Amino acid sequence: MSARIAADLGFEVGILGGSVASLQVLAAPDFALISLSEFVEQATRIGRVARLPVIADADHGYGNALNVMRTVVELERAGIAALTLEDTLLPAQFGRKSTDLIGVEEGVGKIRAALEARVDPDLAIIARTHAGVLDVDEVIRRTLAYQAAGADAICMVGIRDFSHLEQIAQHLSVPLMLVSYGNPLLRDDARLASLGVRIVVDGHAAYFAAIKATYDCLREQRGIAASDLNATELTHKYTQPEDYFVWAREYMDVQE
Question: For residues 25 and 34, is the Cβ–Cβ distance under 8 A?
Fold first, then answer.
């Protein structure tokens, strides 16, 4: 439904986020718990009705470079227009930062494997990295390496402002995609376009608004007094991440 609504409102492209797919399929937090087959099934359902191209957030490709090849094959068959592959170390190790990254050489290997597995040259392979946890020189090194490996575009998370973006973008020739989460310091479409940015992901506000609306509607039907919980708090409450931390301590010897 949201894909149809987005197309009707004039959006040029949509994205199936890994975190949203985890919520839709598992009601689980974004701990890389969803399997490739479950993600592909959801992508297929959306592609069946979508009237706009859809990008798949393929996380880390569901494993190593060989897993990446399988991911590309399955998502291409599902009709996805593009997919992002990130160099985040996933699944995130409990007790460590979720922004740990794999080595750039491994990241390059994943991009090369994705291109080898691709059949349709119009399927865009987008290399993603977290610019917010690296110094600028390392971001430039990684993005240049992914570009040289043949990535069709570069996606970056954690760009702080235009100065930050300009330092990196000047070295790149492929299109850029930003996951900005609505950063007000990046609210200038013309300036973004001049720096090579073609897609901006503001976040998944529409989906979280739907969670909030569902909660409020059911609460009202039950005659329960109004709640001050916002969408983020509701998502945290009903995905029950504390359970996973308990299990991690119990079965993985993780110390918080």
Answer: yes
